[in-house]
Design a protein that fits this description.
single chain; mainly alpha
Amino acid sequence: MPLFFTILIASFIVSLIALIGVVLLILKSDIARRFSLYFISFAAGALLGATFFEILPEAFATGIKVPDILLYVLFGILVFFILEKLFIWYHCHGETCVAHRQQSAPLILIGDIVHNFVDGIIIALAFLVDINLGIITTVVVIFHEIPQEIGDFSILIFGGMTKAKALTWNFITALSVVAGATITYFLSDFFNGIIGILLALIAGHFIYIATADLIPELHKETRFRVSFIQISLLSLGVFIIWIMGKILSY
């Protein structure tokens, strides 16, 4: 299959995750929140696993000096912190999110468009570097998007949208993943020579999401049983990415 169609399919699958809001039409809200919380744990581990097992090794292999790669990782963390501040790109996972409750629905949707567009860029870049890296990155983005989309759906409902309207707009904004991936593919010639830098920025992005957005959510739960499950799922996320890398490398 041509690389472009592989990227297109991968990005569209990620867009379909927006339909996870259907879960809230079927399940009770407390069940959905618990479901989301456990996915946050797994997603945090998957993001860290992908960063340290796959993305950074690929960045180092491009020949750029290690101190320079690490500098770009740090720069990536700072860039995505700024993006969150400027574009209301908060990783909220329920209707009680203070940051999103202070914003109107249109601004939340704009933030989602920026967020999903960047996800599309990341997926396309990963496939351009290596097909296996693209697969792993797509899986990681999916795990991250599930709790994010559940949260977005809940917040839009809390803000006054009907379930049907919230689901429709959630899916429309999610299609920006496809747009980001498509544009990145057709501009791939411009990335020659800076792939290592771009991978370092992606690593910074993943580290920022895992440590600044997802893991702090886990600290809100202090019950031992739930904390144990969170730790186990986070560790499982790391392990799954490691084993996927091993399997795909054969």
